[in-house]
Amino acid sequence: MSPQVWLITGTSSGFGAELVKEVIARGDKVIATARNVKRISHMRDIGAAILQLDVTASQDELNRKAEEAISIYGRIDILVNNAGYTQFGIVEETSHDQWFSQFNTNVFGTLNTTRAFLPHMRSNKAGIVVFIGSMAAWDGLPAGGAYCASKAAIHYAAESLSKELEPIGIRTLLVEPGVFRTELLNQPSSSRAISKVGDYRAISEAVAKKFDDFNGNQPGDTVKGVQRIVDVVKGESDACGKPWPSSLPLGSDAVSLIRKKCENTLRDLEAWEDFAKSTDI
Q1: What is the pLDDT of residue 187?
Q2: Catalytic residue among 73, 147, 156, 200
Q3: CATH number of 5-278, picked from 3.60.20.40, 3.60.130.10, 3.40.50.300, 3.40.50.720
Q4: Backbone angles phi, psi at 170, to 5 degrees
Q5: Alpha-carbon distance 22 to 34, whole Å?
Q6: For every residue of the chain, which 3-state class applies, written as one string?
Q7: 244 exposed, middle or buried (CB, 10 Å; 0-12, 13-18, 19+)?
Q8: Which of 169, 224, 157 is nearest to 22 (CA)?
Q9: Worst-scoring range by mean pLDDT, 21-30, 84-93, 176-185, 228-237?
Q10: Does residue 80 contact residue 30 with C-beta atoms inside 8 Å?
Q11: Is 188 a residue whose pLDDT tops 60?
Q12: Does the annotation mark 147 as catalytic?
């Protein structure tokens, strides 16, 4: 089987950087992208192609970047939407601009990048689009509303896209990791702002302390997480023979949180079922 061609966004650190190394180690080709290519120039040494790409660019610019990327190896088989960041803050105190910036990268940028490559995949009647989501899509976190909402938006956008693309022969994979030991919490945009409103101060301080304590002590092994993603995409190792997942939680914390959310939802549904159904004509 000939090597597959991957394009990965946000490869300067974290899952993106590890994905580049893992995919190349498996014998495939990679186009590594970042807003600042100086931060990923060293990836040429391990065999990756390098492309400047900012997911918040205009659709026209992203379309041109897609054409440039396709010209490198003649095709793109797998697109990994990994670029993103975390925005902390109490809903009442975070501004429209902060929320827009969060969605502009995590949601609109992801979808615009996907749109840029879909015509190519449709022409081939093949391809895989990977979305790196988060377990945060399943349960709202106080002082993390913008991030949780952005990941929930991607969850359902990817779910809808999957149903649109399946008849064409294109697959989507929604990965929803728990807390992994990446640099995500070190980013300037991930600062844990303490509320200036007394009513919110205690909860914002508790969340800030939780994530400060987590930083550097996250339970998830990024290398192992990346290996599992590539296993699923390529149908290798423990993923061989398994049905394609509608979504892929990664990490024991993600599994526990999602299971608890589902159990609580079913419990509430049962408790309120007759009340809810009483509105039918």
Answers
A1: 56
A2: 147
A3: 3.40.50.720
A4: -105, 135
A5: 18
A6: CCCCEEEECCCCCHHHHHHHHHHHHCCCEEEEEECCHHHHHHHHHHCCEEEECCCCCCHHHHHHHHHHHHHHHCCCCEEEECCCCCCCECCCCCCHHHHHHHHHHHHHHHHHHHHHHHHHHHHHCCEEEEEECCHHHCCCCCCEHHHHHHHHHHHHHHHHHHHHHHHHCEEEEEEEECCECCCHHHCHHHCCCCCCCHHHHHHHHHHHHHHHHHCCCCCECHHHHHHHHHHHHHCCHHHCCCCCCCCEEECHHHHHHHHHHHHHHHHHHHHHHHHHHCCCC
A7: middle
A8: 224
A9: 176-185
A10: no
A11: no
A12: yes
Rg (C-alpha) for the chain, rounded Å, is 20
Mean per-residue pLDDT of the chain: 93
Q: What is the pLDDT of residues 230-246, one digit of tens each?
A: 999 999 999 999 999 98
* pTM reported for the whole predicted model: 0.94
**CA 59 to the chain's CA centroid:** 20
| Domain spans of the chain, in order of start | 5-278
